[in-house]
Amino acid sequence: MNLLDFKVSTPIQIRMNDLDSFNHVNNGIQANYLDQGRTSYIEKITGRPVDWSTLDLVLVHVSLDFVEPILYSDTIACYTRVTSIGTKSIRLAQLIVDTQSKRIKTKSESVVVRIDRNSLETLPVSEEYRDKINQFEAQP
Question: What is the CB neighbour count within 10 angstroms for residue 70?
Fold first, then answer.
């Protein structure tokens, strides 16, 4: 994956309590970093802060490959992009990268779906989301 393909880069602050007994960032904590990246992406395409009481996107799948340990001394960012839009789902690629060395620390693929907050039934991806994502990803 080429970092130039990613239009959203979210700086991540590593906290002392993110570390495990090996002094690496805990694998579970890295899922939180990816959440931050997805949130930043949504805010970029919508142009407004996420309102968690009305957001109609839900994470239904995530896979992670831990390529290299993340150390407290690393300066990292979460890179996020949409790789495809289906009928009811949006597939994302994410990387946690050391911003100094440009080394990939963690790779992730995830899927979000649109959901009706009352019935909890999945909905088709709205034309608004589709248009905003396609416009955003097409920018040079």
Answer: 25
CB 83 within 8 A of CB 91: yes
CA distance 59 to 115: 10
| Domain spans of the chain, in order of start | 3-133
Q: The domain 3-133: what is its CATH number?
A: 3.10.129.10
Predicted TM-score (pTM) above 0.90: yes
Q: 33: closest CA among 86, 96, 84?
A: 96
Query: In the prediction, which pLDDT does 134 show?
Result: 96
Is there a contact between 79 and 97 (Cβ–Cβ < 8 Å)? yes
- DSSP conformation letters of 56-124: -EEEEEEEEEE-SPPBTT--EEEEEEEEEE-SSEEEEEEEEEETTT--EEEEEEEEEEEE-TTT--EEP
Give residues with Cβ within 8 angstroms of 117, minimum separation 6.
54, 56
